[in-house]
Automatic annotation (TrEMBL):
It catalyses: L-ornithine + H(+) = putrescine + CO2. Its cofactor is pyridoxal 5'-phosphate. The active site is at residue 407. Its EC number is 4.1.1.17. The keyword Lyase applies. The modification N6-(pyridoxal phosphate)lysine is found at residue 104. InterPro entries: Ala_racemase/Decarboxylase_C, De-COase2_N, De-COase2_pyr-phos_BS, Orn/DAP/Arg_de-COase, Orn_de-COase, PLP-binding_barrel. This is ornithine decarboxylase.
Length: 465
């Protein structure tokens, strides 16, 4: 291969083997990674203001004369008090079940810190997630479950070296891998449950069907592995509270089957899928807790330790995103065609009259629309120089569509939103943006991830940080 480089201000083709150069590049990258992970963490300030004051204060800090082109970027306000309230609610309604936060949902460093100090455990799915939790310095490895049934060899070794013992599996190949790289692990058999009533059907990818669990337990026995219990996940965004009850019944069957294979299970992991606090009708956390708590108590004695892996439950309602309207396009409708449609008796469905472009989108925080099937509703934050957080806004509302800042047409946040007429420079906000948003945001097209500002509406949180 040929490496093309600049030499002494002129183009020159220098034939070299790329391979050694590449190795050097990779080596230096590894070194600089190590440097950043061991540098001391500087914590951001946590305020004690209500959300609307945070939004207002941040906006007022913008200097219109500033030469910083990033000054008016979209931003999040995270209310750590809401995370804390969710924790208290969990403890009140599911006192027997220990929560292990599924950090893929939102690995925000302050959220992790708060949950760690509240004694919550962590569901990690990769080496980096495990490392992030251990780097907090306050979490014992026995408060981590490596809940990914299909793991990279080196990650299993990493778990062993760092004394992370609990891990899930759902296939025989994984058992052989664990035998080789972490033979003393405490294994949890992830079973398949009915996820047809969930938005994100995790059963497509993971979970042992019940007609395979006997074989898996026999294999584990032969390998001399320590299987301690069962886990499941009813699917993320579950909208049927009975799904939890049915899954616990299945888990009971596998507990009984395990006894036939010489195991004595004492561990049940009921997974994630718990609704966030903003879900107030349909399947609420109260309903899930009532069904789950009573089924667990009916089928499992006190000798069984029960954990769960809630993700969106903790953070969904805790983050609010503020975005600026960076451009507006007025759609010129073809009046003649519209008249014709009306003549033909077609339903007069109101067409969007404006397209608003805002400074965060599908490739950023709104990736939840694509990956997590979320519906994000824009609300007016600042219009005509006045703040309107949770207030009625004067003026007639019309149909509009809302778009992200990239050049891709998939980058659409809402095709039909009822909004008053807004101008470039006005702001919109979106509530309940804490789950599966920042965590998968990209920098596609050169747009930065939106930064997070912290407040707490529960003063007690400050003591925990
Ligand atoms: C994603 C995931 C969770 C969290 O799901 P939520 O719906 O956010 O509660 C828990 N456990 C596992 C194994 C997951 O993959």
């Amino acid at each position: 291969m040929i490496d093309v480089s600049f030499q002494q201000d002129q183009f020159e083709v220098v034939p070299t083997l790329v391979q050694p150069a590449l190795v050097d590049v990779l080596k230096t990258r590894v070194k600089s990674d190590m440097k950043t992970s061991s540098s001391p963490l500087v914590l951001p300030p946590v305020h004690t203001l209500p959300i609307h004051e945070m939004l207002q204060a941040q906006h007022q800090s913008f200097d219109p004369e500033s030469e910083d082109a990033e000054a008016e970027n979209a931003f999040f306000v995270a209310d750590l008090g809401e995370v804390y309230r969710q924790h208290l609610r969990w403890k009140a309604l599911l006192p027997r079940i220990e929560p292990f936060f599924a950090m893929k949902c939102n690995p925000d460093p302050m959220v992790l810190r708060l949950l760690a100090s509240l004694g919550v455990g962590f569901d990690c799915a990769s080496k980096n997630e495990i490392q992030t939790v251990l780097d907090l310095g306050t979490v014992h490895p026995n408060r981590i479950i490596y809940a990914n049934p299909c793991k990279q060899n080196a990650f299993v070794q990493y778990a062993r070296r760092n004394s992370v013992m609990m891990m899930t599996f759902d296939n025989a190949e994984e058992l052989h891998k664990i035998k080789r790289f972490h033979p003393d692990a405490h294994l949890v058999l992830r079973i398949l449950t009915d996820d047809s009533k969930s938005l994100c059907k995790l059963g497509l990818k993971f979970g042992a069907p019940l007609d395979t669990t006997g074989y898996l337990l026999a294999t584990a026995r032969e390998l001399g592995l320590n299987v301690i219990g069962v886990s499941f996940h009813v699917g993320s965004g579950c909208f049927d509270a009975n799904a939890f009850g049915e899954a616990v019944v299945r888990a009971r069957r596998v507990f009984d089957q395990a006894t036939e294979h010489g195991y004595h299970f004492r561990f049940l992991d009921v997974g994630g899928g718990f609704p966030s606090a903003h879900v107030t009708d349909g399947i609420t956390f109260e309903k899930v807790a009532a069904i789950l708590g009573s089924t667990v108590d009916a089928l499992f004695g006190p000798e069984v330790r029960v954990i769960a892996e809630p993700g969106r439950y903790y953070v969904g309602s805790a983050f609010t995103l503020a975005t600026q309207v960076i451009a507006r396009r007025t759609i010129v409708h073809d009046v003649a065609a519209q008249d014709k449609e009306e003549e033909e008796g077609k339903e007069d469905k109101e067409q969007p009259a404006h397209m608003y472009y805002i400074n965060d989108g599908m490739y950023g925080s709104f990736n939840c629309i694509m990956f997590d099937h979320q519906v994000c509703e824009p609300q007016v934050l600042l219009k005509d120089g006045a703040f309107a957080y949770k207030q009625e806004v004067d003026g007639e509302r019309g149909m509009a569509s809302v778009w992200g800042p990239t050049c891709d047409s998939i980058d659409c946040i809402s095709t039909r939103a009822r909004l008053p007429l807004m101008e470039t420079g006005d702001w919109m906000y979106f509530e309940n943006m804490g789950a599966y948003t920042i965590t998968a945001a990209s920098q596609f097209n050169g747009f930065r991830r939106s930064e997070v500002l912290y407040t707490t509406t529960e003063p007690e949180v400050v003591l925990h940080l």
